Structure prediction request, 280 residues.
Amino acid sequence: MPGDTRAALDAGLVAPRGRRHRPRPRALAVTLRTLGPLALLGGWALASATGALTQDVLASPAQVAEAVGELWSNGQLADALAVSLTRAGLGLLFGASAGLVLGVITGFTRLGEELLDSAVQVLRTVPFLALVPLFMVWFGITETAKVALIAVATSFPMYVSASGGVRSTDRKLVEAMRSFGLGRWAIVRTVVLPGALPSLLSGLRLSMTLSVIALIAAEEINSTEGIGYLMAQAQNYSRTDVLAVCILVYGVLGLTADGIVRVLERVLMPWRQAVQGAAR
Prediction:
């Protein structure tokens, strides 16, 4: 036994043990993720079967499944889903792009921060729902008002994440690139944005989630198309099964948005998966 090891043991120290990482089977991970939703579905079905939940309060899962088939067969669900996805997609595109550009400007240049940051922070504190009456005055009851509301809601999370991510970029690396003759745009494209990628994806995740929330609010503005219109019609006729379908569609949209960002993280930052796997 080496002398250093003997001395450590005499001093009461314990020799460190290496931790072996055992990869978790993919099937097990998928099974664990589905347990929560399955438990909720089972509780819902049990409450409906025992009469704790009546149809006038909330339709049973079987009735909701029948409503899905009815709405899909007559084309209402597909048409409404296409309209809502278009609204959410356009609003997210405009809002996230504006937030990204403003965040890079304020995070990378001192002049941009001094000119823009305080104004954007003031606007960020205004709830986007408070802008609904103003947008109706400006744009009327049109698609422009709905898309603009979603764009405003999704711009600020991306702005905050982009600005913080750009500020955290290693300044020594930026100065080194400048010494090699790279211009400002080249530095942003090759150094700043890749370095801020984790923050940008976090901002995108928040923006995509907010696009669904803002979509729900936007479709309350006298919509004649979309999932919100289906909800309004179902409310008028007390169709709790259709209401449940629309609520589930909104939930699936939010879950899908989160899944898209997770896929982007795996593709654009494969090293993060390796680090997280080793830490478990």
